[in-house]
UniProtKB/TrEMBL annotation:
Assembly with partners or alone: Homodimer, may be a subunit of the RNA degradosome.
Keywords assigned: Cytoplasm, Endonuclease, Exonuclease, Hydrolase, Metal-binding, Nuclease, RNA-binding, rRNA processing, Zinc
Purpose of the protein: An RNase that has 5'-3' exonuclease and possibly endonuclease activity. Involved in maturation of rRNA and in some organisms also mRNA maturation and/or decay.
Residues annotated as transmembrane: none
Positions in coiled-coil regions: none
NCBIfam families for this protein: MG423
Cell location: Cytoplasm
Domain Metallo-beta-lactamase: 14-208
Gene name as annotated: rnj
EC number: 3.1.-.-
Name recorded for this polypeptide: Ribonuclease J
HAMAP family (alphabetical): RNase_J_bact
Family note: Belongs to the metallo-beta-lactamase superfamily. RNA-metabolizing metallo-beta-lactamase-like family. Bacterial RNase J subfamily.
Database matches in InterPro entries: Metallo-B-lactamas, RibonucZ/Hydroxyglut_hydro, RMMBL, RNase_J, RNase_J_2, RNase_J_b_CASP, RNase_J_bac, RNase_J_C
């Protein structure tokens, strides 16, 4: 019996974590995070709920990583801190994972693997990595052989006929596995709604060459710091055109340094200048390569848009936003583009110049090609929001797959395979754990609700001073408001007087009990507040005795 159990990534972009369970052993494919929406104040990251793995810790044999993006490796430190198991991945993927682990002081048993070289995880899983084309070096999918049958997990992939590094998705190996018989295909659904072929990275290379030739001023390129194939051809273009490169953004500096150290980027030190040196250089001599293409508040492109930092955008400069908004980021990216336009520079992004970005994910015709090559008995679409999974399942139906082989799973579902047949057989705990980036801080739903309530209503701190012996009111209530409108701030003195009259009428016995006194103080302030405003603000009471 084999169980396929998604803990994340089936119903959202990010949070990727897929459990395979067979003969009392558990294998995890990826341990990714996702980033919070605007309505999650104080939340830095979101990780999967790993309760199922914790409950079966003795059976948990290891983690295999498809590639080094945060939505596939970002939750590793939080998993391994409690469940220290071996982690398998390709060279560059492990290097990125090691950085994340070292940042949080988590030690790990990292084991490097090579494509087309099978290895054992426990006794139930024989795992073989297969090269795929994505936006980061060393990306792979997996062929996992179990006593119940073979599973193929594509990871994030696309079919690029001429990739920058020359390493194509290994369709030949997937086809060979298909001829042997594949029990179930788990395939990337991100671009299932797109009917056109996903473009080659060479398209971006050609577009950049044209834009560089056209531009006499400074050039700023904003992109994902992990898209090192694109970084590679930007650096090469700068070498050829005589432009120096300034890196902006912590992850950009770190990833480029790591890629150079490992030989993935072979460029001289003389190509780079510090970001502080940019204003001193002639505009036609420099390119700023920065983070922030998703409108992140503290990223490099946002600093440029707001005029912060050493670099000031001017007329004649060109800003290339070389990424499309991740679902949920559209509003913040739009606001960023508006702000950049006010700076006077020329702004180019995918909606007006499609060639500045191509996706790293297979579109519908490429997804269909994989289905036709693998010929799986069962199909579970993965990595996508619900509409992406539905559309990918439709593509599988159109490819001729039998309806009983099409399985639309969501986070927490248990898909069981027995004697060659797949079925749903229950669920396990799953969900989203809201966290601070560092430390052990978990933000509970109750905390998040309270923070959002504060954002909506504001807060009033109310202080009274009482005599310890007679319970008489010595001073107060003194009110201090945060997050209030100017009108509400203006009536605080009136509210304080009305609350004082109410509080003085209380029985001294009530004022003598701290808990009751705080409760009545809140009631007094809220009652007075209601007379002057329609909002119900949060009141924080403090009773001081002298």
């Amino acid at each position: 019996m084999l169980h396929v159990i998604p803990l994340g990534g089936l119903g959202e972009i990010g949070l990727n974590a897929m459990v395979l369970a067979c003969r009392g052993e558990l294998l995890l494919i990826d341990a990714g995070l996702m980033f919070p929406s605007a309505g999650m104040p104080g939340v830095d990251i979101i990780v999967p709920d790993f309760t199922h793995l914790k409950r079966n810790a003795a059976q948990f044999k290891g983690v295999v990583l498809t590639h080094g993006h945060e939505d596939h490796i970002g939750a590793l430190p939080y998993l391994l801190d409690e469940l220290p198991v071996p982690v398998y991945g390709t060279r560059f993927t492990l290097a990125l994972a090691r950085n994340r682990l070292e940042e949080l002081g988590v030690e790990a048993d990292l084991r490097e693997i090579e494509p087309r070289s099978p290895f054992k995880v426990g006794t139930a899983f024989t795992v073989e990595a297969t090269r795929v084309t994505h936006t980061v070096p060393d990306a792979v999918g997996y062929i996992v052989r179990t006593p119940e049958g073979t599973i193929i997990h594509t990871g994030d992939f696309k079919l690029d006929p001429d990739p920058i590094d020359g390493l194509k998705t290994d369709l030949e190996r997937w086809g060979e596995a298909g001829e042997e018989g594949v029990l179930c295909l788990l395939s990337d659904s991100t671009n299932s709604e797109l009917v056109d072929e996903t473009g080659s990275e060479r398209v971006v290379q050609t577009t950049f060459e044209r834009l560089f030739q056209e531009t006499k001023g400074r050039i700023v390129v904003a992109q994902f710091s992990s898209n090192l194939h694109r970084v590679r051809h930007i650096l090469s273009l700068c070498e050829r055109t005589g432009r120096l490169v300034a890196l902006q953004g912590r992850s950009m500096v770190r990833n480029v340094a790591l890629a150079r150290e490992m030989g993935y980027l072979q460029v001289p030190d003389s190509l780079f200048v510090h970001i502080d040196s940019v204003p001193k250089l002639a505009p036609h001599r420099v390119v700023v390569l920065t983070t922030g293409a998703q409108g992140e508040p503290r990223a490099g492109l946002t600093q440029l848009a707001h005029g912060d930092g050493p670099v000031r955008l001017e007329a004649g400069d060109l800003v290339i936003v070389s990424a499309r908004p991740i679902p949920g980021n559209e509003r913040s990216v739009g606001a960023l583009l508006d702000q950049l336009h006010w700076r006077g520079a020329r702004i180019v992004y995918a909606q007006v110049e499609p060639g500045v970005h191509v996706s790293g994910h297979a579109s519908r015709p490429q997804q269909r090609r994989v289905l036709d090559i693998v010929k799986p008995r069962h199909f579970v679409p993965v990595h996508g929001e619900v509409r992406h999974l539905h559309r990918h399942l439709t593509t599988a139906r159109e490819s001729g797959m039998a309806p009983e082989g099409l399985l639309l799973a969501h986070d927490g579902d248990v898909v069981t395979f027995e004697e060659g047949r797949g079925r749903f057989s229950g669920s396990v705990p799953s969900g989203r754990i809201l966290r601070e980036r560092s430390g052990s801080g978990v933000v509970t739903p109750e905390t998040l609700l309270e923070r959002n309530r504060l954002a909506e209503t504001g807060m009033v701190a109310a202080v009274v001073v009482l005599r310890r012996d007679t319970q008489a009111l010595v001073a107060g209530p003194q009110l201090s408001g945060q997050g209030l409108s100017p009108d509400e701030q203006g009536v605080l003195s009136k509210i304080a007087l009305e609350a004082k009259a109410y509080f003085e009428e209380l029985n001294p016995q009530l004022r003598g009990d701290d808990a009751l006194a705080r409760e009545e103080l809140v009631r007094a302030v809220k009652r007075a507040f209601k007379q002057h405003t329609t909002r119900r603000t949060l009141v924080v009471p403090l009773v001081v005795r002298v």
